[in-house]
UniProtKB/TrEMBL annotation:
Top-level taxonomic group: Eukaryota
One Pfam family cited in the UniProt record for this chain: DDE_3
Domain Tc1-like transposase DDE: 41-170
Species name: Acanthoscelides obtectus
GO molecular function, one term: nucleic acid binding
Record-annotated membrane-spanning stretches: none
Protein name per UniProt: Tc1-like transposase DDE domain-containing protein
Length: 175
């Protein structure tokens, strides 16, 4: 018991029975996929970097009773002091260009800056075997985006709700 220390608990989304079943079904449907099938998948994600950390994990060392030292105070900066967003994709042996997104990702920005100039040419290069994986963010699933994907014959890999762990981009984005 001497090695026990208080730790922050792991955090994750609360999953409904339906979401758990969808994750399990996804895993069963794709567990037999071989490397040639996964080579046709482009995994994509967007990330926003703030100029100021907003995670409140910064720690300071101070003596008991000296809580009010101004040089130890952390200023609160609204909206992380400004931020910048990027979108990118990875495939088996290549990667997409890194696209800077001005402002907030909207369906219009997604279609005009990602689907048309990046995803459609990749689909043309890979042919009918091309599979596109994005996440369930609202702008990426908006009604405006669907016709562009259908017209370009772009097939999406299903993405169960609350399942960021299925996309390797999520893992690499935390490094």
């Amino acid at each position: 018991m001497a090695n026990l220390r208080p730790r922050r608990p792991l955090r994750g989304p609360r999953l409904t029975r339906r979401q758990i079943a969808a994750r399990l079904q996804w895993a069963r449907e794709h567990q037999e996929w071989l490397l040639p099938q996964w080579r046709n998948v482009v995994f994509t994600d967007e990330v926003r970097f703030g100029l100021v950390s907003g995670d409140r994990r910064i720690r300071v060392w101070r003596e008991p009773g000296h809580d009010q030292r101004l040089n130890l105070a952390r200023e609160l900066v609204p909206y992380q002091g400004g931020s910048i967003m990027f979108w990118g994709g990875i495939m088996f042996n290549q990667r997409s260009p890194l696209i800077q997104i001005q402002g907030t990702m909207t369906a219009e920005i997604y279609e005009e800056n990602v689907i048309q100039p990046i995803i459609q040419p990749l689909r043309n290069e890979f042919g009918n075997n091309f599979i596109f994986m994005d996440d369930n963010a609202r702008p990426l699933r908006a009604r405006r985006v669907e016709p562009a994907l259908e017209m370009g014959q772009i097939v999406r890999l299903p993405w169960p709700a609350n399942s960021p762990d299925m996309n390797p981009m999520k893992t690499f984005g935390t490094l």
